[in-house]
Amino acid sequence: MLMSIITAMAQSVLVHEQVSFPEKIPAGGYSGITWLGDDQYAVVSDKERQDGFFRFTISLDEKGMITNVVRQDFVGNDGRGRDNEGIAFFPSKQSLFISGEADNQVREYMLDGQATGRKLTLPSVFSKATSTYGLEALTYNAATHRFWTTTESTLPCDGKEASLRNRIGNKLRLQSFDDNLRPCEQYLYVMDKPTAKSGAKTYVLGVSALTALDDGRLLVLEREAHIPDVKIGAFVRCVIYSVLPAKEMAINGKKINKAKELKKTLVAEWTTSIGLLSFDFANYEGMCLGPRLEDGGQVIVLVSDSQYQYAGILQDWFRTIVVY
Fold it and tell me: Strand, helix or coil at 48?
């Protein structure tokens, strides 16, 4: 099944139903994904003790819907896990960059899992990032020659993090880097305000993934997870917006309160939940550019973090959307 929606950009977007393959995908904390070409992907898990990534095979049909997912081997090194959250393929060097929330660095690895010692040169403002709401999202686009990353929530120096009490929108710095790993443009992105109406045992609100498109647009995945004590009624709201940074004014180190925020255009929105008879709750944390279809549609692949199939009721869900 699929659902078609029309965005404000007058573009058609197909949002395919999410799918899971429990017999082929061992439980994990899958938090980031990148396309390597053909049907091959690299996926990071934020709870692995060892530093590295998994190889996945993800098969699509002619409409871009996922028909099969298989987890292959783990490719690692001697380092300890860095709470790996985002991953991006860098074709010119045939390497991978991985963002870790434990050290809030974006480091380079070869396809055999070995670290090269290189990393993105982060502006000093990101040294204030926390280990709970730090560098989560990461993407690279070979057509625009830009890496992009951001923190999951507001940096302490930029104000308060959004919560159910203050009901404000997180203010994030979208930071780009060139092929030489040097920082370039920086833009202000303001998230939606919380939508949950009541308190919860667990509440998470932040940007969990970015995907850079060939035309310069950047897709931003906002994720709001609300989990009460009893679990029934828990939900995750996912919203994907597109922004076009080149048409806006960069921050370039200025204070947030003096910057102009990026204009957001809705691309897709969905909510999953835990009910008495439904268990489609899916906390999507990874998103990447996939192949282009014969009809011109650009596939975007998403992966959720089930917290190792928490309590035996969560699943490792995958989903695609197709942007025209």
Answer: coil
Gap between the Cα atoms of 24 and 245, Å rounded:
39
Can you spell out the DSSP letters for 8-24?
TTS-EEEEEPPEE-TTT
Annotate 257-293 with b (16+ C-beta within 10 A) or e (fewer). eebebbebeebbebebbbeeeeebbbbbbbbbbbeeb
Collapsed DSSP state (helix, strand, coil) of residue 90: strand
pLDDT tens-digit series, residues 262-315:
999 999 999 999 998 888 999 999 999 999 999 999 999 999 999 888 777 789
**Residues 6 or more apart in contact with residue 63 via CB below 8 angstroms:** 2, 14, 16, 293, 322
φ/ψ of 310, rounded to 5, equals -45, 130
Overall size of the chain counted in residues = 324
C-alpha torsion 28→33→35→40, nearest 10: 0
How far apart CA 30 and CA 260 sit, in angstroms, is: 34
Confidence of residue 323 (pLDDT cuts 50, 70, 90): very high
Whether 203 contacts 166, CB under 8 Å: no
pLDDT at 8: 38
Q: Which helix (H) or strand (E) holds 41?
A: strand 40-45
Phi/psi-derived region of residue 94, left when phi > 0, alpha when psi is between -120 and 50, beta in every other case: left
Range list of H helices, 7-115: none
Q: Is the whole-model pTM more than 0.90?
A: yes
As a whole number of angstroms, the distance between CA 85 and CA 46 comes to 6
Nearest to 149 by CA among 161, 157, 141: 141
Numbers of helices and strands, H then E, in the chain: 0, 22
Burial class of residue 243 in the structure, from the number of CB atoms within 10 Å of its CB (0-12 exposed, 13-18 middle, 19+ buried)? buried
